[in-house]
Amino acid sequence: MKKLLILVLILISGSSFAQRQLIRIATRNMSLLYSTNNQGRLIQQYLGAKLQPENADTLNRSGQEAYVTAGLESLLEPAIRMVHNDGNPSLELRYVSHNVTKQDDNVTHTTISLKDPVYPVDVILHFESFYNEDVVKAWTEIKHQEKKALRMTDYSSAMLHFNAEKYYLTQFHGDWASEAKMEEQPLTPGMKILDSKLGSRANMYMSPMFLLSFDKAVTENSGEVLAGTLAWTGNFRFAFEVDQLNALHINAGINPYASDYLLQPKEVFTTPAFIFTWSGTGKGAASRNFHHWAIKYGILDGQTPRLTLLNNWEATGMDFNQERLTELFGGAAKLGVDLFLLDDGWFANKYPRNADNAGLGDWEPNKTKLPDGLGYLVKAAEKQGVKFGIWLEPEMVNPKSELYSKHPDWILRLPNRSEHYYRNQLVLDLTNPAVQDFVFGIVDKTLSDNPGIAYIKWDCNRMMTNTYSPYLKENQSQLFVDFVRGFYKVMDRVRAKYPHLPIMLCSGGGGRTDYGAMKYFTEFWPSDNTDGLERIYIQYGYSHFFPSITMAAHVTNWGKQSLKFRTDVAMMGKLGYDIKVDAFTDKEMQFSQEAVKTYNRLRDIIWYGDLYRIISPYDEDRAVFQYVAPDKKKAVVFNYLMNVRRKEIFANVKLQGLDPKQQYTVKEINLFPGTGSSLKLNQSYSGDFLMNVGLNLVPRATALTSNVLEVTAL
Questions:
Q1: Which of helix, strand or coil describes residue 588?
Q2: Cα–Cα distance between 122 and 108 in angstroms, integer?
Q3: C-alpha triplet 374, 380, 382: angle, nearest 5°
Q4: How far is residue 56's CA from residue 33's CA, in Å, rounded to a whole number?
Q5: Are the C-beta atoms of 708 and 595 separated by less than 8 Å?
Q6: In angstroms, rounded to a whole number, what is the distance separating the alpha carbons of residues 704 and 559?
Q7: What is the pLDDT of residues 611-657, one digit of tens each?
């Protein structure tokens, strides 16, 4: 009898092992492996470097459930929690099936279907892997067939698990005019949360992106690092939980704060994508992975040239008329940029938009300032050889407006409470389909009434406070989710009718900087702070996730640096100007004209080349950035001396990403008229020399000076 029992146990064990599933999501250098356990639950078995042979990762032993549910035996922060019709607050998910679809030679879509064995609830985990870019997009679908709605209180996009000796987290935070500051800290046992609760301007204080390194703090060129971001233009949450065994568990997704979601029968709830990459050679490689992915897959028309522009804001503010604007068109043409952008202040008549306390919501041209309308400006700009663009903030309203008087039910505000204003405005209720129609109508009417408008700056200057939707009534907890969905519905309609119109994503600076929105936009505004010195830090931070082509960077009068310094910094992004061109001296105009030509000649290297952050502004009183063309035949180096001390000594700058066997010339360009290069570069160098010995780019340490070098293969 005892022998028979042992035989039965062996057969059961063998049967369970035979049914075990192995699901591998792999890229060129990364592998994510799932399996099933004896209970049929999905287990994350491995995540990290792609091992050789390929099945070597199956030897890693892990019993951690991939997508932890609430209410059962796990003590971890759950990825999903719901309350069933009978009040049961638990969920069990067992493996049902998986499917792998190869979309092309680079992209593979894997789905893993899970199901509760007792309740009719289905969860589908989606993974889209990009082989060459080493990037994975992960998102989740949740649905059920119970008789009534289920209440979901947690619904992560993805959950990941790690085992290492130590963990180091880098976050990106700040405020208006100080966005994307970087701070690294070790994770200790317990919970660390990066999140936002600001709604429409969610990223004002915390950006939805992070770096996580293992065992030791990561550098640009060494160490294991995971870089992750959430494609969601609203409240987000990254939860990092180090348990009692020193294992790390990450939940990434929409912030569940005040956002219980009533999931109706047969409704499919789709989370936003958590996008991540893994690098075993430092954060520089992780950034380049994101840049390559974004240009091809993450942003609108990523491989289409962008427009240089001149904005009128610094020159005029809201105090202008059409005669003054047409004068500025001439400055744009003389400068050599592609487009003139008319900023805030051009609209509203009953409550004219002469300051930020009136007119927002009333989107007809102001007859006093623009008696001939926008169409006249479009044609006047075209006559001077430049395109015309316009500023809009269609999601917002001033209380002093006709829109506010006519549609008080379209506004987010609490009943029985006094209104709270930020920048003298309130947020329109994008959960309401009528408001969605209105916002789309603003864009559509502006463009269709004025054919030839070639660009939109889409602004959003207010976060949500005193938040209540008249439209949602008793379902207020869905407001933060449905608002973002409403925004996306508007943008879907805009892009269906105007698929390739360049649109800048702006939110009082970097209040919206995410890949959920960037599929609709061609660029974003990183910060209202255009001080050249400050912008080095801001653009450095964003460069960890966004390529240069996405970052609008304008030359302005902010800061105490020279025009050359400010121009050099702006050339590392999508170049623009917001400055009084007619106040330029002859030499300043000559320099700026040549800078635009130089930028247009080298922009493909800056936009599409590999970025190497050679020296960080956080490490020294200087910063060095290098962009290398894919074929390694060309490179552009930006060298900045910041607040250096007298007689400060700096080491040689060792370039990266070149062909060691290739000979190169190095020439300083973008020099101010009447000046020459102080760098002694009059010879050719091998790539090996440039990368291992390097160049002295500080012959004399002078604060707030800059150099641009063009590196060319012979």
A1: helix
A2: 22
A3: 105
A4: 11
A5: no
A6: 10
A7: 999 999 999 999 999 999 999 999 999 999 999 988 788 999 999 99
Q: Give the whole-angstrom CA distance, residue 460 versus residue 605.
A: 31
Q: Cis peptide before 53, with omega less than 30 degrees from 0?
A: yes
- Res. 267: pLDDT tops 90: yes
pLDDT digits (tens, 9 = 90+) for 315-335: 999 999 999 999 999 999 999
β strands within 440-558, DSSP E: 453-458, 503-505, 523-524, 552-555
Is-contact 41 94, C-beta < 8 A? yes
* Residues β-bridged to residue 309: 339, 576
Q: CB of 698 within 8 A of CB of 622? A: yes
Give yes or no for residue 534 having a pLDDT over 90.
Answer: yes
- pLDDT tens-digit series, residues 332-379: 999 999 999 999 999 999 999 999 999 999 999 999 999 999 999 999
Tokens of 573: 């992004």
Of 135, 120, 161, the residue nearest 35 (C-alpha): 161
* Cβ within 8 Å of residue 557, ≥6 positions away: 314, 579, 580
Give Cα 201 to chain centroid, integer Å: 13
Spatial contact of 110 and 126, defined as CB atoms under 8 Å apart: yes
Tell me the mean pLDDT in the region 125-137: 98
Higher-scoring residue by pLDDT: 241, 5: 241
- Look-up of token digits 């069990």: 92
Cβ atoms of 695 and 655 within 8 Å: the answer is yes
Number of Cβ within 10 Å of residue 466's Cβ equals 16
> What are the structure tokens assigned to 29, written together?
């250098």
CA-to-CA distance for 454 and 382, rounded, in angstroms?
11
Closest CA to 503 of 487, 523, 517, 488: 523
* Torsion sign over Cα 281, 284, 288, 291: positive
Q: Residue 550: pLDDT above 70?
A: yes
**Strand segments (E) across 321-474:** 339-342, 387-392, 396-397, 426-427, 453-458
**Residue linked to tokens 């390097």:** 694
pLDDT of residue 20: 87
**Closest of 552, 624, 545 to residue 289, by C-alpha:** 545
C-alpha 554/C-alpha 568 separation (Å) is 10
Is the pLDDT at 230 greater than 50? The verdict is yes
